[in-house]
């Protein structure tokens, strides 16, 4: 914002699409928090590709609709949830993305590295860094997550994390659906 305040409005992970075809610029800044490789397309050439390969347009629409659903879910997280629920929701999203990105078996145990600082998590959740740290510690102390290092998180039971996030968990034998629901 003009006065220097900022709000993280999204967290992109591979394979994400950034920008909108046909638009010259974006009103948002993008900050990479980890090693990042971008593949850039010239606007006109990308338009030609979409005409030549209609399935590309379908895939882009599918990705856009998924992003819209994620934005709606994020509005709920920011607007209605308590600090513990926000932190658990954030970790559940990262766990889900890890499972999908690495094509991991949909088990109840997922491990991932936090590539984003607690300060950035706080900015994303509308919390202070101290609150995020306290909530992560509380989730660890309650056995919801395990901290293998400052950045390595293990989620032993996705359904339990979802309950802490205030989300409706799947039945115990439906771990796949629980992960899909937060993807």
Walkthrough of the structure:
- By secondary structure, this protein is mostly helical.
- Helices cover 50% and strands 5% of the residues.
- It has 7 helices and 3 strands, in the order αααβααββαα.
- It has helices at residues 43-52, 54-80, 83-101, 118-125, 129-141, 158-164, 175-182; strands at 110-113, 146-147, 152-155.
- It has a 3-stranded antiparallel β-sheet with strand order 1-3-2, with helices on one face.
- The chain is globular, with a radius of gyration of 18 Å.
- Mean pLDDT is 82; it is low at 173-183.
Q: Report the sheet with the most strands, covering strand number, pairing sense and barrel closure.
A: 3 strands, antiparallel
Series of secondary-structure elements, N-terminal to C-terminal: HHHEHHEEHH
Q: Could you tell me the strand content as a percent range?
A: 5-15%
Low-confidence stretches: 173-183
Helix content: 40-55%
Q: What is the subunit organization of this protein? A: single chain
**What structural category arises from helix and sheet content?**
mainly alpha
Q: What's the total count of β strands?
A: 3
Cα separation of the termini: 29 Å
Strand line-up in the sheet with most strands: 1-3-2
What general outline do the C-alpha atoms trace?
globular
Count of discrete alpha- or pi-helical segments spanning 4 or more residues: 7
**What is the overall pLDDT average?**
82
Radius of gyration: 18 Å
């Amino acid at each position: 914002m003009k006065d220097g305040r900022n709000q993280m409005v999204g967290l992109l992970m591979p394979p994400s699409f950034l920008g909108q075809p046909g638009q010259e610029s974006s009103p948002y800044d993008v900050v990479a928090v980890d090693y990042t490789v971008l593949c850039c397309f010239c606007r006109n050439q990308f338009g030609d590709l979409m005409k030549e390969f209609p399935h590309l347009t379908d895939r882009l629409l599918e990705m856009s609709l998924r992003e819209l659903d994620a934005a709606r879910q994020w509005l709920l997280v920011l607007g209605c949830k308590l600090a513990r629920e926000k932190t658990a929701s954030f970790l559940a999203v990262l766990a889900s993305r890890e499972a999908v990105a690495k094509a991991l078996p949909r088990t109840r145990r997922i491990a991932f590295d936090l590539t984003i600082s607690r300060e950035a998590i706080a900015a994303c959740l509308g919390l202070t860094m101290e609150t995020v740290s306290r909530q992560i510690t509380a989730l660890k102390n309650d056995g919801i997550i395990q901290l293998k290092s400052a950045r390595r998180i293990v989620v032993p039971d996705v359904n339990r994390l979802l309950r802490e996030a205030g989300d409706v968990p799947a039945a115990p034998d439906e771990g796949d659906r629980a992960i899909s629901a937060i993807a």
